[in-house]
Amino acid sequence: MNMQIYLARNNEQAGPYTLEQVNAMLANTQIVLTDLAWHEGMETWLPLGQLTGGKMVYNPSNSAASSTIAPFKTSASITVLSDKLKTNERLANGAIIADVSKRIWASLVDFMILLIVTEIVFNMSMPLAAIHKIQSMGYSQLQTFINESKTGDADHMWTVLTSLIPAQVFLYTLIAVILVTVIQLGLVASHGQTIGKMLFKIRIVDMSTGQKAPLMRSVVIRSILFKYLGYLITNFLLLMIDFVFLFTKNNCTLHDRLAKTIVVDAEPIQLEKPKT
Asked: Could you point out which of 52, 133, 155, 253 has its C-alpha 20 to 30 Å from the C-alpha of 275?
């Protein structure tokens, strides 16, 4: 088989090599499975590990290279990989680990969307009579209510609150929260992204393969059990612990580690195809 294979590592391109040369270099570890490769018939550069199926030998007859779809959506114009990227900032499939700042901003956007939607629903469902009642309360009455809320007397606080705000307002607001949450979870299940992550072009993927994470891990374990329920049950203590983990290796939070997921750039920059 007269195949000409090009290799790349750390933005350094080499080749072409024959298939026999590539397999020989794999055998003596001159090249590794995280190195990128390209040959005629491939639409984009892929890591050798993806072509070989994790083995230390490349057998194109058993490879899906010609029909493989890149694990992440790429732009039409293929650009050169930045010199700033380090080897440990890439997954085995060439994806780039998302910056901490992107993850924080994406989370803030998701929180603001939830806050804005619930506030709009709350205000729109609030009867004018209830608004006038609250506005007519004196400063001393409001201060008493605030002080009672600080004492932790939940039953009394709820009684006072429901006397001011009709029950249907809380119901509509709860429905709004559930709808926003379901939409976000649906996007995670289908694209590995919330709205915030879409805006900042980052994505949740499987930690080992770089592909879209299974529903059980990305939605159930990572999002529902750990983030939504876990944060509430621990009174957001888990959120603070999670934030600390965000600054560890590969920017993996605690919920990433438990769900075996990682957040990467949704559109990884690709090396330029060699001209043959």
From this structure: 52
Beta strands in 60-171 (DSSP E): none
In this structure, the number of other CB atoms found within 10 A of the CB of residue 167 comes to 8
Which long-range CB contacts under 8 A does 53-56 form with residues at least 24 apart?
56/26, 56/27
Q: Provide mean pLDDT across the span 69-96.
A: 41
8-state DSSP, 61: G
On the 0-12 / 13-18 / 19+ scale of CB atoms within 10 A, 111 is exposed
54, 41, 52: which is closest to 2 by C-alpha?
A: 41
Start-end of CATH 3.30.1490 domains in the chain: 5-69
The whole-angstrom separation of Cα 148 and Cα 163 is 15
Q: In sequence order, what are the beta bridge partners of 90?
A: 96
DSSP string, 29-59: TSS-TTSEEEETT-SS-EEHHHHHTTSSS--
Burial of 46 (0-12, 13-18, 19+ CB in 10 A): buried
User: Per CATH, which fold does 5-69 belong to?
Assistant: Dna Ligase; domain 1 (3.30.1490)
* Secondary structure (3-state) at 90: strand
- Tell how far CA 228 is from the center of its chain: 15
List b or e across 53-76, with b for residues whose CB sees 16 or more CB atoms inside 10 angstroms. Answer: eeeeebebeebebeeeebbbebee
Q: What is the pLDDT of residue 134?
A: 66
- Chain mean position to CA 5: 33
pLDDT the model gives residue 88 = 39
- Residue 6: strand pairing partners: 38
Distance CA 207, CA 261 (A): 4
pTM over 0.70: no
